Amino acid sequence: MTIYWVNYDLNATGQDYEKLITYLKSHDSWANPLKSSFFVKTSLTAAALRDGIKLHTGSNDNVVVVPVGGHGWATFGASKSVTDWMHANL
User: Residue 6 belongs to a domain with what CATH number?
Assistant: First the structure.
């Protein structure tokens, strides 16, 4: 399993985030540290995860999927549930 940090900007006014969020939460494990980002633990490649995300976004949206190694991270203002997830998974 690989952990990816998924960052996205949905640029259309009134766009529905729920389908994207449901998709991101459908993977093995996840955390939502910031409004438009998720950590996703999955067996998919970065490209396959990106392609799945594209099914739930529009053509003018922006998405970045980056594998996370987890060494030396720090947070400010992140919830306890997010930092607990990070401690357990990164």
Answer: 3.30.70.240
